[in-house]
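Summary: Need help interpreting a holo structure output

Steps to reproduce:
1. Submit the protein chain below together with the SMILES for NAP.
2. Request a joint structure prediction with the ligand placed.
3. Inspect the C-alpha cell block that comes back.

Expected: a single structure record containing both the chain and the bound molecule.
Actual: see attached output.

Input attached:
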Amino acid sequence: MKIGFIGLGRMGAAMAANLVKAGHEVAVFNRTADKGRALRELGAHQAGSVAAACHGEVIITMLADDAAVTEVALTKEGIVESLAAGAIHVSMSTISVALAKQLAAAHARAGQRFVAAPVFGRPDAAAAAKLFIVVGGEAAAVETCAPLFGALGQRTVVISAEPAAANVAKLSGNFLLAAAIEALGEAIALVGKAGIDRRSYVDLLTSTIFPAPAYKTYGDLIAESRFEPAAFAAPLGFKDIRLALAAAESLRVPMPLGSLLHDRFLRLLAQGGERLDWAAIGGLATQDAGDPQTVAPVAATVHTLTREPT
Ligand SMILES: NC(=O)c1ccc[n+]([C@@H]2O[C@H](COP(=O)([O-])OP(=O)(O)OC[C@H]3O[C@@H](n4cnc5c(N)ncnc54)[C@H](OP(=O)(O)O)[C@@H]3O)[C@@H](O)[C@H]2O)c1
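--- attached output ---
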C-alpha cells in the first residue's frame, strides 16, 4: 500500500521500519527531520512536510500526546486539510478520548475516514512486530488497514466501530499497568528491606501466581532499579493517567487508585524523574522505606526445593 507515517520517536521509528520491510511504499515525516535518516536508508521516502506525507491511501500517526496530534492533524496544512477524500487516518498514539472524538468528526466532515488503533507493547515489541493493537473504526476502513496491522503487531483486536472506544480501552489498560507497577514497587520494597533477594522474589511471583508479561517486565525493572534509558518515558505515563482520569471524570466513574497514581507520577516528576522510564514510580516505595539497598548484592537465596527421587 502507499502510506504515510508521521512520528518517528521510540515507537514510531521501529513501526515505520516494519512497514517498509513488509513491502509498503512509505513516506515518513518527523518534526525533527534527522530521525528519518535510518528509514531513508531502509527505503522509505522522506516527506518534507505533513502535507507531503498525506498522498497515500492511509496516513498513520504515532506522536507523543494530544498537543502533537492536534498540531499535526488539525492545523493549517495538517492531515485533515491534506488527505484525499476516502483516505484513512490511523491514529496509533495514546491520546484522549475527547481528541479521538474530535478527529473522527473532523475527518468525517472532510469526507475522510478515521481509525483509532493505539497499541500495547514497548519499543522492543514494536521492533519485533509484536505489538497488540486495539482498534476502533468502521469495518471497511479497518479491513483496508488489516495488512498494515499485520506488519506491526502479533494480534489486532477490533473493539468497536466507534474509534474513541479503542482509546478508552487503551487508557484503562495503561491505568492497570501503572497500578501493577505501584503494587510491585511496594511489595518489592517490603521484601527488599526484609533482606530477601528482590530478583528471586520476582522470579517466584512470575513463575507461580503472577505469570503475566506485565509483572515479569516491570518486576525485573523494579527489582534491578533499571529505569534508564526510558523505553516509555515517565511524562508520557503521567499523561496516560491524566487522560484515564479525564475519561473517568466525564463518565462519572470514581477511580481512587487512579488519583493515587496521579500523585505518584507528580512526585517522581517533581524530583527529577523526567528522563526515567515510567516504571520508576515502582522505585518510590523503596525510597520511602529509606532502604539504600536497591539491588541485593548476594546471589539468589530463594530457590525451588525439588523432591529427591526415592
Ligand atoms: N514507548 C512506549 O513504550 C509506548 C508504548 C505504547 C504506546 N506508546 C504511545 O505511543 C506514542 C509515542 O510514544 P514514544 O515512546 O514513541 O514517544 P517519543 O519517543 O517521545 O516520540 C514522540 C514523537 O512525537 C513527536 N512530537 C512530539 N511533540 C510534537 C509536536 N508538538 N509536533 C510534532 N511532533 C511532535 C516527536 O517528534 P520529535 O522527534 O521532533 O521530538 C516524536 O516523533 C505516545 O502516545 C505513547 O503514549 C508508547
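--- end attachment ---

Reviewer comment: The pocket of NAP is lined by residues 7-12, 30-32, 35, 62-65, 67-68, 71-72, 93-94, 119, 122-123, 231-232, 236 (CB under 6 Å). Confidence is low (pLDDT under 50) at residues 295-301.
Status: needs-info
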